[in-house]
Amino acid sequence: QVQLVESGGGLVQAGGSLRLSCVASGQTFSRLTMAWFRQAPGQEREFVSTVFWTGAIAPYADSVKGRFTISRDNAKNTVYLEMNSLKPEDTGVYYCAATNRRGGTWRNVDEYDYWGQGTQVTVSS
């Protein structure tokens, strides 16, 4: 089992920045592919970004490309999501996800086995 704990969410004005963190425990972090998803009220959970166990980064969701940056620190068992130029449409609950599977698209919810509890991000206009 893998336990994931997110932090760093909050209320920010449009154009501002936040950095989300997700600390993992329970399995060897360096073997996990880590991802961020988000879910707005009344909408399905959607892919944001993935960093593979190798350190390679998958293409970002179009909606966040050029504004968000994912990174990982294996020494700290932590994955980060740096969010800049935030927009009101970025509002939602942000979830950290993990898997030790190999292969797949890495953009689908059902490809991840472990999830955090989520952290709320609210961007005001």
Biggest β-sheet, characterized?
Answer: 6 strands, mixed
N- to C-terminal distance: 40 Å
Number of strands: 10
Q: Kindly name the structural category.
A: mainly beta
Mean pLDDT: 97
Q: Using the alpha-carbon principal axes, give the shape.
A: globular
Kindly provide the radius of gyration, computed on alpha-carbon positions and rounded to a whole number of angstroms: 13 Å
Report the β-strand fraction as a percent range: over 45%
- In DSSP terms (H or I, runs of 4 or more residues), the helix count works out at 0
The percentage helix is: under 10%
Low-confidence stretches: none
Q: Could you spell the SSE succession in H and E letters?
A: EEEEEEEEEE
Primary descriptors:
125 residues; six-stranded mixed sheet
Structure in a nutshell:
The chain is mainly beta and 125 residues long.
Please provide a written account of the structure.
The structure is a single chain. The chain has 125 residues and is an all-beta fold. Strands 2, 4, 5, 8, 9 and 10 form a 6-stranded mixed β-sheet that branches. It is globular. It starts with a strand and ends with a strand.
Outline the secondary-structure elements.
Layout: E1 3-7, E2 10-13, E3 18-25, E4 33-39, E5 46-51, E6 68-73, E7 78-83, E8 92-99, E9 114-115, E10 119-124
Parallel strand pairs: 2-10
Antiparallel strand pairs: 1-3, 3-7, 4-5, 4-8, 6-7, 8-9, 8-10
